[in-house]
Design brief:
alpha/beta, 6-stranded parallel sheet, 2 domains, globular, 15 helices, 13 strands
Amino acid sequence: MRIAYLSIGGHIHTERWLTHFVRAGHDVHLLTVQPAPIDGVTVHDIRTGIPFKPLHYAVALTRVKRILRSIRPDLLHTHFLTGYGYWGAFSGFHPFIMTVWGDDVYVTPHETKLKGSLARTVLDRADLITGDSEDILTHVVGMGANPDICHVVQWGVDLDRFRPDADGGVRGKLGIPEDAPVVISIRSFTQAYYNIDTIVRTAPRVLEARPDTHYIIAGNEGDDSELRSLAGSLGLDARVHFVGRIPHAELPGYLATSDVFLTVPSVDATPVSLLEAMACGVPVIISNLESAMEWVTDGENGLVVRPAEQEELEEAILELIGDPGARERYAAIGVRKVREGADHAKHMRRMERLCEELVAGRVPRAGGTP
């Protein structure tokens, strides 16, 4: 198949998804306003340099249409409901697949009537819709999407690399003693709703109770300077390690060396980093969002807290640090769940089959409302 994608360039989600299809022998093209090279992918830059957004979208749309006419793909697959979704829907190209990510469903369409109307138009024009959780697809159906074309497809985890025995020499690199508890967060710094500041603020109380604890704060996107300043003002420089963007190849080593993984956003779909942590045997603490709770049950294979509730998070961290038996139980269940339900290769092969069905003129049916 020749597949054209509209998606965020330079993003690990886009790179992993497209790389699978390249390796499977497909001719893959990426149309993006954030161009970055991906091995085997033809990248088309649709940037306009126009600051006035409506005009920018209109001019970029003409470029999208021209490129699609030129490359004549078998299908168009758009990632992200807002922004890229607009270009996908108004290109008029079919078959047209829409994959939603997170705040493009949970946040942006609810900001203004116009954004909501545009999002509903995209969903109405899609021939197939995928999302990484039942919850996000329930929201999509609530916005008017046809439930029969909504399929759960995970971004998934590379289970050959994300394993409990992964080793990257992280403790030696950061000067963390082998027996010291390590708490890790690897969520992006781009949005306040990830509540990374709440995580940093838990450190004084946790360190008061367990002075040997170390935090690792990483993020694939955004600027962590304000968080570094916050940690400095709290006197945490020696115990909170800001490591910026961890190359994906090195991430298993960071996760497998940690004792507690934190993801406590106020808004989110299923975090891939959560599934990667579970695959590495790391006990997790999550916020009580439905997408994450499809994978974690409080007290069974992790702990669940309310978003931005600092005291609850402090207590949960100290509970896990102080209970090696619980950590071991949670880790074992987490590994099993991810290996059974979030294998990247299996989900991408399923996505291939869905694409092939559409190209053959058949619309795969999901079999009911998520």
